[in-house]
């Protein structure tokens, strides 16, 4: 495992299951359970990791390693259930929330897929969950290649015979782990000359340093701004999971009137959602912000088939204390422009990679301690995973919608995941069950945020006629 993958594995506990997930909704009729099993088996060779489990070393003298599961059984991982017909969105969300709240068994390959029947209109769904130590959001979207096709008619190959590789002994793993703890930092240090050769000029290094240093005052101001720390708190074992929707046409309409990127507009709508939540709780004050971590993919085009994490992150203040939606969008746009120009995502990636120099035992202890330390710097995580703009199918049935699930951790009780598919955006809002009983206010507020900005964009367009 890489250091980042290992940190996701180490921080998990009974109240903080660290898997990502999704709900895929299809038009009917539902396929048979046997056909779904055969589909997974036919595609399993594309992702060997799905037949591997985690083996941790004694005293964490080395990072956890992946080994083949001698007793791999596809029937354990691909499951079959139904909601009382005709099941509506509430029934599907409640079922998914219960499934997502359950910790994956780390004695087996850390993934599950559930075939769900009984949805109204003859629809059906796939609920999937995969541990974060296996994938990040972008490579996670690649996992959908297991079950999704670009063509409605496709021929499944015959499953190939699979034999697990013998597992190394604990002694061999300990020896390898100790060697890795010594050799890996040396390898990273020895790579520095090659990195230096790839830098075009000394002026590039100077420019990068200037941009980072120049951004420090703005970063300090962002961190000093009063945040809605009432959103932070301890996390229990249960989850509430709700969703919201938007479409590309209305986002384009907003961008035409007010500027900014698609992501800027999305963050502005999420800001309205948090504003409504805090206002209904009586906790909203002028100038208040909700500070969010926005993961940024550092994955290159040729790395999309690699099953590991290639992510960095930036911190953005969502200006919930601002009543004017135009000013909220302008604030977010200014922050994102500053973060891009200062290359802070690249700088954060460098800091993340510094954990490659830490001894695995210290990394395990540090990861767990950091996640248990009561922090109030961040209130949420918002992650946007772009999906395909063309129709997808599973066993000939068209995919209608897909909704993301992003885990909560530490004292962060709410996360927001965003998927794009065709010309639609879907929001999966995950929240601690006891700490955020009113999470539907956030989902409704996100939708209200888009409606509000669309109305203002329409007014602006009328004034220019």
From TrEMBL:
GO BP: biological process involved in interaction with host; glycerol metabolic process; response to hypoxia; response to nitric oxide; triglyceride biosynthetic process
Keywords: Acyltransferase, Glycerol metabolism, Lipid biosynthesis, Lipid metabolism, Transferase
E.C. no: 2.3.1.20
Domain O-acyltransferase WSD1-like N-terminal, first and last residues per copy: 1-266
Reaction catalyzed: an acyl-CoA + a 1,2-diacyl-sn-glycerol = a triacyl-sn-glycerol + CoA
GO CC annotation terms, alphabetical: plasma membrane
Domain O-acyltransferase WSD1 C-terminal as annotated: residue spans: 309-453
A GO term for molecular function: diacylglycerol O-acyltransferase activity
Family to which the UniProt record says this protein belongs: Belongs to the long-chain O-acyltransferase family.
Name of the protein described by the UniProt record: Diacylglycerol O-acyltransferase
